[in-house]
Amino acid sequence: ERVQVVVRCRPMSHQEVMDGRQCCIVVDQQEKTIEVSGDGRRGSSNDSNIKVFTFDRVYDSKCTQNQLYQEVAHPIVQSVMHGYNGTVLAYGQTASGKTYTMEGFDDSPELRGIIPHAFEEIFSHISQSQSSDRFLVRASYLEIYNEEIRDLLAPSSSPGTRLELKESPDAGVYVRNLTCLTVHSLSDIIRLLMVGKKNRSVGATLMNQDSSRSHSIFTITVETSVEDPETGLHIRVGKLNLVDLAGSERMSKTGATGDRLKELTNINWSLTALGNVISALVDGRSTHIPYRDSKLTRLLQDSLGGNTRTVMVANIGPADYNYEESVSTLRYANRAKSIKNKPRINEDPKDALLREFQAEIIRFIGLIYVLKLMNSENCVNRLKAQLSGDAVNDLTKEICTLKNEKEMVEKNLRNLRQQAGCLRAEKERSDEEKQKLTEQLLKQLKDMQPHYESFAKEKEDRDFLTNKLRALEDKVLHGSNNDNEKLVEKAKQQEEELALYQHHIQERQQLDEERQRKIAELEVKCSTMEEELEMKTTKFRKLMACYQQSKADLASLRTELQDTIHEFHRERTDLLLSLRSLEQQHQLKSLVIEKFIPSEELAKIMKRVEWDDETERWVFQSMVANFQSGISPFIVDPANKQPLQRPASAVGRSRP
């Protein structure tokens, strides 16, 4: 299934109203569209600045916190309780209302955000479940500040500790040494949220006095154990990630300097990496998804294209001076709509702590039960006195079985103790070997000490002789002919400098010649490219003219085709009407012939008519022509071959 994307527009702030800002956002909840106008006036003549985007759901400033949660986050939380992974992600420009959407305010229940509502629904679901169901709820809270992962639930003795990302085939990407606490009630998890909010990095900018300077992820893991009388125990693990991203910022608007500028750079970098991941997931041709470009994208790897049901809440501001940021946010969210995830139920994972806890509880209960039976001989004797022989035998067998199980438990315990003893002995043995090796190295070092001392003494003697030789050479250089030698040395040095200078001049000349040659080649190449550009421009213009002509011809052909189709339908309708009329006439004439013309006369007529293909008409043959050709136009008597005479009419009646 694809990532669900919703957009929420906050109301105008008091400062924006005081500054006389215009609203450039139009929200159509029926059509699920967002219209952004560049000049702040809807339906203006400059339609090029009007952008329209369509999403799964859109909300204006009248949307309440409860409505947003019920329609957006509630399905995700429900799926987490059934074993799916879920992520609710808030994205948008700074001061667009992301933290308000995710956390809200604690002053009133109507102002609480998605995170407190999710807490309430999780524990409400647990309280309404069957008594046989078991739940284990764990929570962790981290932030990504300047590309460093910090544990917001860490003890006060180690605040802001940097954590590392690790990856394993079973657990995927996880944070090493991240505090993950088990919670038992709604008050426990709300207390953890309050602790994390106090430790989170927050700062003031020109656009927001309480701007979040880091990305935060609150993770809730819910392990559910359901007892099925037919199939046995089922364990499902669902993980809910509640992500509050830091807002994208512009330095010119926020006035960021110093630490705020560094935070801005890292925030925009991680959001850019997130955008690159979304673009790569949407583009079907990309073979590499750059999850490793940022720690944020690595932590959200499953939420974007993995085993998670994800919903993104894009927050925008309505003021016209944020037009570019709003359009950028909407484009960002519009691309995210095409991401396909593959969520599945996490059933019976290897690291299900709930199963381990239940197994330990059952094992301890069994041991206690065995010990009680073994230490209650009086109870057994009383049962023997009350029960029959078969029952006593069954009970005796059961006691023997329990004794055997106890012996097996004791045997396993002895084996474990033996293994622990072996491990302890191996450790002591390794410590002894380490001690022996250390003593051996110390002994070798002690044996080598005289050699080191003699070597150091030889080095001192050699340095002493070298210094003495250098002093003697200095004395020789400072003899009586020292002035002449200085002049010779100075002249030699000047000659070397002159040769070096001439060499530099030659190299510079060669470089100048090479540069001139390259410039000439570039000029020739540039002129050639200009000619080629002019030729291609001319060709492009011709092709554009051909394209425009073809486009016009195509439009004309389309119009002609539409006219032809219309004419065809009209003619077809006329033909059908004509055919229907002819059919009616044919039926009428056939009925007249059948009812009013005798069959003998009809046969005579059919003998005389002939179809003419040229005129497409029935033509009566001439009776005279038929008589001359030997074909009698009269009915012939078969006895004497004479034409039959017309019968005389009855008295008072004319002949037929």
From TrEMBL:
One of its GO terms (cellular component) is microtubule. Residues 2-339 form the Kinesin motor domain. Residues 406-567 form a coiled coil. GO terms for molecular function: ATP binding; microtubule binding; microtubule motor activity. InterPro entries: Kinesin-like_fam, Kinesin_motor_CS, Kinesin_motor_dom, Kinesin_motor_dom_sf, P-loop_NTPase. Keywords: ATP-binding, Coiled coil, Cytoplasm, Cytoskeleton, Microtubule, Motor protein, Nucleotide-binding. This is Kinesin-like protein. It comes from Selaginella moellendorffii.
